[in-house]
């Protein structure tokens, strides 16, 4: 027997899968941003992670309040308005996060400038932990070249080639670090897109369930009609006829008997 999935079940699956994928992508982008100190703001990746469960809760809450607002109570109406406002705020925040993620992707000149500024900030503050973490992750030395602001930093006991000599890495960090930043930004953007997809699926799902409930409520009080067997119906008609005939005779008796008694009484008085 072939397995069939109706539209409602499919929308349920899309809503859950998109929400889970968005949460995973957001968490990965947050972890990558924090681990390798990418120029992408950490709060952007954090919001991309939290936007999925927040959106799911907001959609479910708005649906519950919408159903309860049918009672037209002031409290339910107030909560329905609040959930609608939160829903719009979530949409605005998601759009901002997606826009920032794209800003760290295009154009390439801006992305390169962000990476340059981030590395320069680490170098000026002598943040050896940050630069060393990037170099160890990608097995590289320096930013633009093997000797470009690499760790170990140049001093009296270390030259420009200290990283190359001590660690043995033979490539610069700019290309792999930029690719890592691009992949992370795409994760943030995809997380927001999956949130919007889950939102669309939930709206479509709510519309289908509302239509189904309306149809059921419209058919809630069907008109019942008694269907009898023809023979039974004829017997009922005959019984009704007998009762009507007996009723007619009884009525006639009630009508004519008093008149008859009155006439006999008058005749007796005359005699």
Number of domains in the coordinates? Answer: 1
Low-confidence stretches are 211-237, 248-271
Structural class: mainly alpha
* Overall pLDDT: 76
Globular, elongated, flat, extended or rod-shaped: what is the shape? elongated
Report on this model:
By secondary structure, the protein is an all-alpha fold. The protein has one domain (7-211). Helix content is 76%, strand content 0%. It is built from 8 helices and no strands. It has helices spanning 7-35, 42-68, 74-103, 108-124, 128-138, 162-167, 174-218, 230-270. α1 runs antiparallel to α7 (174-218), α2 packs antiparallel against α3 and α2 runs parallel beside α7. The relative contact order is 0.12. Mean pLDDT is 76; it is low at 211-237 and 248-271.
Question: Which terms summarize this structure?
Answer:
76% helix, 0% strand, 271 residues, mainly alpha, disordered C terminus
Entry summary:
With 271 residues, the protein is mainly alpha-helical. The protein has 8 helices and no strands.
């Amino acid at each position: 027997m072939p397995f069939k999935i109706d539209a409602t079940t499919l929308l349920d699956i899309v809503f859950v899968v998109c929400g889970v994928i968005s949460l995973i992508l957001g968490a990965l982008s947050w972890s990558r941003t924090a681990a390798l100190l990418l120029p992408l703001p950490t709060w952007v990746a954090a919001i991309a992670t939290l936007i999925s469960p927040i959106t799911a809760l907001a959609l479910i809450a708005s649906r519950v309040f919408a159903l309860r607002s049918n009672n037209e109570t002031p409290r339910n109406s107030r909560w329905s308005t609040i959930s609608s406002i939160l829903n719009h705020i979530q949409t605005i925040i998601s759009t901002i996060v997606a826009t920032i993620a794209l800003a760290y992707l295009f154009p390439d000149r801006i992305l390169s400038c962000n990476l340059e500024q981030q590395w320069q900030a680490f170098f000026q503050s002598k943040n050896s932990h940050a630069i060393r973490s990037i170099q160890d992750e990608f097995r590289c030395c320096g930013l633009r070249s093997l000797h470009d602001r690499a760790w170990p930093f140049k001093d009296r006991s270390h030259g420009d080639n200290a990283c190359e000599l001590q660690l043995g890495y033979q490539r610069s960090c700019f290309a792999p670090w930029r690719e890592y930043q691009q992949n992370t930004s795409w994760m943030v953007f995809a997380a927001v897109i999956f949130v919007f997809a889950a939102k669309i699926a939930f709206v479509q799902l709510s519309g289908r369930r509302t239509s189904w409930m309306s149809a059921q409520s419209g058919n809630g009080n069907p008109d019942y009609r008694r269907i009898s067997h023809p023979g039974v119906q004829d017997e009922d008609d005959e019984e009704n006829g007998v009762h009507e005939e007996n009723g007619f005779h009884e009525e006639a008796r009630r009508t004519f008997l008093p008149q008859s008694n009155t006439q006999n009484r008058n005749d007796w008085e005359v005699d």
